[in-house]
Sequence to fold (177 residues):
Amino acid sequence: MVKFMDVLEAIKGRRSIRAFKSQNVPAEIVEKLIEAAHWAPSAGNIQPWEFIIVRKPEIKRRLAEAALNQSFIEEAPVVIMVCANENRSSQGYGIRGKTLYCIQDTAAAIQNIHLTAYSLGLGTCWVGAFREEEARQILKVPQGIRPVAIIPVGYPAEAPQPRSRRPINQIVHYETF
Fold:
């Protein structure tokens, strides 16, 4: 049985992992990550996300190159490309759905993947720096579907320290800005 941890513990404990053990990530664990993403909130419950699971070394290598040569991507046993279905969102919400809601919705799904992975002892990294058209071609992503994030997934081979956070009183405003 899979044991999940407290949500705040996962939020505070999760780190961007860029070094992975060679240990395989079983398909049923990857399915748990997608299940968590699948339960993310979305505007109008449109659920505009699409997920591409990549395990083939050659495809991971090409994605790492498209991601400005971030080689740790290809070292992860599994890579998940999260895409936003702009067409689906625009049907419900027009241009705002296409340009904003589908991105917000996929971001929520991405965060669910990260937190669930951490709770299962996995490491992930949110990679948004990549040449989008190159990634689209590598993965044969059709027009109307936008690649949003590359998530390498694996068992961490590092334990980064927490990064500093701005104080709460610098980021919260009451009633008006």
The CA atoms of residues 124 and 153 lie 5 Å apart. The two ends are 47 Å apart (CA to CA).
